[in-house]
Amino acid sequence: MAVSTIDPNGLNIGQIGGTRNKIINGAMTIDQRNAGAAVTITTASATQYLLDRWYLRAEAAAGSKVSVQRSSVAPAGFSNSQLITSLSAYAIGASEHFATVQAVEGFNAADLSWGTASAKTITVSFWVRSSLTGLFSGFILNGAANRCFVFSYTINAADTWEYKTITIPGDTTGTWVTDNGLGLYLNFTVAAGSSVSGAAGSWSSTFNRSATGQTSLVGTSGATFYLTGVQLEAGDTATPFEHRSFGAELALCQRYFEKSYDLGTVAGAANENGMAITWAASVSNYYSFSAKFSVSKRATPTVTIYNPSSGTTSEMRNTDTGGAVTVAGISNGGQTAPFGFLYSSSAVSADGNRYSTQWTASAEL
């Protein structure tokens, strides 16, 4: 394992064309769910998606230890970062840990050939900043959670952006999914207990969450941890961060999560800019409505319907009368755009009125 704090400022000496970075939304620009609002992880042992493609894993005895949000604090060349803030001075338990995680789809990691003799080396690079200094760590994990590589790095100066690169040899053993399932996890740990920590720098069948000596962000009230410019690529050299266009990055995110709301509106909010539609078909006194996806999904998604005037789930709004109508059922049409889903209600009559909804569709790993 090699660690560098030097920012490479040369030509891309690796892959020149195509997509080098296997991390989606590594620059933390897209936040469909929360539109930049801070979210407190209130549930113990929670896995909660926040910024697109990133979730916070909290394995703790109690919730409300950290909040997460998209931040405008960023190093040169970036506009955003992910900010994790400690909400109290919490003594981490021996088996507890907190980490921000991206699950990489198997299709996107298949070319690494992990689990074979041809396994490729990877390099992870990122920008990090914290109010605390000391040893920090993270880990790569397979979907079965039985092949783990813990890496470590040092934050040298408080409240200062530092660039890190970490080179990891490909794993020649274990099972690594290469379809639309869970290919690998990339985890950045911000706190971990002694019983889930271990030595860094080699592949193991032991699922450790951090390197021994990990700094505990949650041990200091108000402590902050910023992360951006995350890149995971094949090869033993970190290339400059691959900035994709906003539209391309959004489309990559929408494979896993899409909403009908405007980008700047929190998903699930009471917002009138909904999708107005008239009834389409009647079968046995049920009236069906349809919605379409912008992007094909990784798998058949979980759809949630919202009343645009109240944010209440499983409701439509009669735009003409202002009344609320309960959604009786949702039928997914599949995962391929432009096909989306159908939803129906027995409370709608053939009155010619307009009905509006908002919706989210999640096909996360």
What do you see in this structure?
This protein is mainly beta and about 375 residues long. The protein folds into two domains: about 1-255, Jelly Rolls (Sandwich); about 275-360. The strands form five sheets. Strands 1-11-8-16-6-5-2 form a seven-stranded antiparallel beta sheet, with no helix packed on it. It has a seven-stranded antiparallel beta sheet with strand order 3-4-7-12-9-10-14. Mean pLDDT is about 90; it is low at about 5-15. The protein has helices spanning about 105-110, 245-255; strands at about 1-5, 40, 45-50, 55-60, 65-70, 80-85, 95-105, 120-130, 135-140, 150-155, 160-170, 180-190, 195-200, 205, 210, 225-235, 255-260, 275-280, 280-285, 285-290, 300-305, 315-320, 325, 330, 340-345, 355-360.
Features:
2 domains, Jelly Rolls, 7-stranded antiparallel β-sheet, single chain, mainly beta, 365 residues
Number of strands: 26
Average predicted confidence as pLDDT: 91
Helix and strand string, N-terminal first?
EEEEEEEHEEEEEEEEEHEEEEEEEEEE
Query: Terminal Cα separation, in Å?
Result: 28 Å
Overall, the morphology is globular
CATH topology of the largest domain: Jelly Rolls
Instruction: Give the number of helices.
Output: 2
CATH superfamily of the largest domain: Galactose-binding domain-like
Helix content: under 10%
Please describe the topology of this protein.
Blueprint: E1 2-4, E2 39-40, E3 46-49, E4 55-59, E5 66-71, E6 81-86, E7 97-105, H1 106-109, E8 122-130, E9 134-141, E10 148-155, E11 162-168, E12 182-192, E13 197-198, E14 203-204, E15 210-211, E16 224-234, H2 246-254, E17 257-259, E18 275-278, E19 281-283, E20 286-291, E21 302-306, E22 315-318, E23 324-326, E24 329-332, E25 341-345, E26 354-362
